[in-house]
Amino acid sequence: MASKAHFVVVLSILSLFACSGNAQLSANFYATSCPNLQTIVRNGMRTAVTTEARMGASILRLFFHDCFVNGCDGSILLDDTATFTGEKNAGPNQNSARGFEVIDTIKTSVEAACSGVVSCADILALATRDGVVLLGGPSWTVPLGRRDARTASQSAANSQIPSPFSNLATLTSMFAAKGLSARDLTILSGAHTIGQAQCQFFRNRIYNETNIDANFAATRRANCPASGGNSNLAPLDTLTPTRFDNNYYRDLVARRGLLHSDQVLFNNGSQDALVRTYSTNGATFFTDFAAAMVRLSSISPLTGTNGEIRKNCRVVN
Predict the structure, then answer these.
(1) Which residues, at least 6 apart from 153, have a Cβ–Cβ distance to it below 8 Å?
(2) Closest C-alpha among 297, 25, 79 to residue 188
(3) I need a surface site. Which of 115, 130, 245, 282 has the fewest CB within 10 A?
(4) 250-270, pLDDT tens digit by residue?
């Protein structure tokens, strides 16, 4: 009986990889066509993160917002034109998505080394991993071979990227729609151990919610007035906002989640136990985060002859 169960599990895992498109991606996709790719991307990210530590978080958010709209296809990088509406001005991205210039700079360096070979989607995937590593987080092997979208969808960006005001049921269903579990939701939310959020996205939480530490709420109100100051920033992790660690989960246990969508992960619900585990075991979080990032990065990639290899990440060829 055990061997039959094992067979079913193995079969399920294999089908999951086939569905995710991971089977068409490979870690050594550019081994001969662009052998220095990983070094070039890492050097570009090192410069960016040294200049501004927050950039590691910004690139990670960019990647997440890219993958949640028609898969990890670089569509978020496309600029609006007179005849083309991209995703940059969708609600979740407008005046908050950042790091585009960093990807442009890395793309220029990659093009100089191997022209017309590496997609912007793959550069973003590698830059995301490197940003996490440079801030002290885990590494993972990035599956490569994505191609770039020729299209984008502002409406999908508006409807499919989770909101900071969402409850647990909504977040769970939005992740499920992308083939990600409730556990993946809790793991990937740990990305909020780095970065900042704008006052407009946490104002209601610090003024109106009750499952919040009173001192924390008072501290955050000092820089986020009841009206105005929408773009004022606060760290998502109270302790080490420029270091990738497990303090985000310690904040949740202490009722110091900045966003409503953070604190719902620890609010007498299904994810409480996992949050507690990560709050006391950073090594387990690191291992699980690395694996979840591979799953995220494998959502509906364009491969083979689909899409294109953009010359400039901001415009289709």
Answers:
(1) 69, 70, 75, 87
(2) 297
(3) 115
(4) 999 999 999 999 999 999 999
Cα distances (Å, whole numbers) of residue 280 to 195, 236, 246, 247, 252: 21, 18, 8, 9, 12
Rounded to an integer, what distance in angstroms lies between the CA atom of residue 303 and that of residue 150? 13
Q: What angle do CA 34, 40, 42 make, to 5 degrees?
A: 130
260 is catalytic: no
- Domain 168-293 sits in CATH 2.60.40.420: no
CA distance 71 to 300: 5
Q: How far apart are CA 106 and CA 196, in angstroms?
A: 23
Residues of the chain with pLDDT under 70: 1-23
Q: Please report, for the chain, the start and end positions of each structural domain, with discontinuous segments joined by +.
A: 24-161, 168-293
Q: CB atoms < 10 A from the CB of 28, how many? A: 11
Distance in angstroms (rounded) separating the CA atoms of residues 258 and 264: 11
Q: Which of 290, 314, 3, 239 is closest to 129 using CA atoms?
A: 290
Q: How far apart (Å, rounded) are the C-alpha atoms in residues 154 and 175?
A: 19
Residue 6: its pLDDT value, please? 52
What per-residue confidence (pLDDT) applies to 3? 46
Task: Compute the residue count for the chain.
Answer: 317
Cα separation, 256 vs 236, whole angstroms: 9
* CATH topology for the 24-161 domain: Peroxidase; domain 1 (1.10.520)
